[in-house]
Design a protein that fits this description.
The protein is mainly alpha-helical and about 80 residues long. The protein contains 3 helices and no strands. The radius of gyration is 16 Å and the shape is elongated.
Length: about 80
C-alpha cells in the first residue's frame, strides 16, 4: 500500500507541473501573442527580447529562466 501511495505521489508531482506548462503555453500562443500583449516577469522580458531581436521566443524563455532554475537547485 505504501508503494502505491509513493508511486501515485510521484506521478502527481510530475503531472501537475506538466499540466501547468501546457496551460501557460496555450495562453501564451492563443491569447497573448496574437493580441500583442506583454506578460509580466520572465515571460514578459522574454517577449520583449524576442520582439527586439531575431531570436525566437522559445530560446529567450530558456535563456532568461536558466538563472532562476540554477538558483533553485543551489538552495
Amino acid at each position: 500500500m505504501a508503494l502505491e501511495n509513493r508511486l501515485s505521489k510521484r506521478i502527481v508531482d510530475w503531472l501537475m507541473p506538466a499540466f501547468g506548462v501546457m496551460v501557460t503555453a496555450v495562453g501564451l500562443n492563443c491569447f497573448l501573442l496574437p493580441n500583442h500583449f506583454i506578460d509580466g516577469r520572465i515571460t514578459g522580458i522574454s517577449m520583449l527580447l524576442a520582439g527586439m531581436t531575431d531570436v525566437p521566443l522559445s530560446v529567450w524563455l530558456v535563456v532568461v529562466n536558466k538563472p532562476k532554475i540554477l538558483a533553485r537547485r543551489t538552495e
